[in-house]
Write a structure and sequence with these properties.
3-stranded mixed beta sheet, 6 helices, about 190 residues, alpha/beta
Length: about 190
Amino acid sequence: MTRYLARLGLACTLVTAVGACVDERALSSATDLPAQTAFVEPRLQQVLDNLPGERLLRELSDADPSFGGYFADADSLVVLTTDLGRAESLRAVTEAKRPRPDRRGLSASSRPIAIRQGRYTFRQLARWRGVALTLVAGLPDFAGFDLDEGRNRLVVFLTDGSGEDAMRSALSDSSIPDDAITYEIIGEPILETT
């Protein structure tokens, strides 16, 4: 999992600096993404769409739109898909694209691939991330944000939980499903990546 909180500083700065606007214009796409009710300023979306730590995730999503994310567990590299009928195709694409083990043979890439059911595609989560950030980044109690591909969810980090209702309310007007977002109280904002 990658926490985008250090890079989030750049994204949040962009939200403010470039005046990312929220309005009732609907975004639509030729992909499998539903229309959104919030407009994400294109420069912010461009930053989010090009996060260096997501290069492989984007490549896998481009190769198989059912791809929902991946994570390493104790025994395998778990790849999530919204369509288990595409499991073998996704396994082959992941095998071809994943990084090779380092010179010591250590990394999640040396583990066998296990395909599991996910609820959302990586494309959906990535698009919703921009919408959600636009809606909640300036609210009190906001401490950070993550597209958690391992849990196949978006995570809103809160300082103390006092703003959770306001964030839920702000996000309820978007087309992001409620169960696609989780909230975690972390205290002060995290200023590093993991």
